[in-house]
Amino acid sequence: LYSSAASDVYKRQPQVMRVFVYDDNCGPCVPLARLLAQRTRGRLEVIPFSRVITELSEDDVERFTEEALYAAGPAPAPGTALPDAAHLWGHRAIAAGLAASHHRADRLLARIILAPGVTAVSQLAYRWFSRNRWRFGGGSCAVNPAGQTPTSPTR
């Protein structure tokens, strides 16, 4: 249902560390990340961007302004949180996070997100949400890629 390269990320391998990085200054992102952490307990580390910003390249930090990050690979060196291996971004990161869930429905949703014909729509939906996430409440969003000042939507 998805490419073999993507499927390698989903295989359960105890020696592989999986990390999902979320924007900890984003109102809607924080509760969604907490939900993901609950549903993937023991299978996925869900950590805030502020904890790993120093481990990322300038290009990765810039890319993070528009996309969530999933990393998988050997356990990192002491004092670091990110494995130095495969990185997935955006809708693929969301799918990889969901694929680590204990819940069958989440794993099915991960496959649907990456299914041929659906992945392009998933990518567009993710980009739209990412650019507009500050509108969804929570009162803050430090990362606002459109360069707009985060404000409460007019009602």
| Number of continuous helical runs | 7
Main pleated-sheet profile: 4 strands, mixed
List the uncertain runs: 1-7, 145-155
Please report the distance between the alpha carbons of the first and last residues.
42 Å
Q: Secondary-structure element sequence?
A: HEHEHHEEHHH
Which strand order do you get reading across the main beta sheet?
A: 2-1-3-4
- Quote the beta fraction: 5-15%
Classify the secondary structure makeup into a structural class.
alpha+beta
Looking at the chains present, what oligomeric state does this protein adopt? single chain
Helix content: 40-55%
Radius of gyration from the CA trace?
Answer: 15 Å
Count of distinct strands = 4
Average pLDDT, rounded to a whole number, is: 82
The global form is globular
Describe this structure in words.
With 155 residues, the protein is an alpha+beta fold. It is 41% helix and 14% strand. It is built from seven helices and four strands. It has a four-stranded mixed beta sheet. Helix 2 links the parallel strand 1 (16-22) and strand 2. Helix 5 packs antiparallel against helix 6 (104-113). The radius of gyration is 15 Å and the shape is globular.
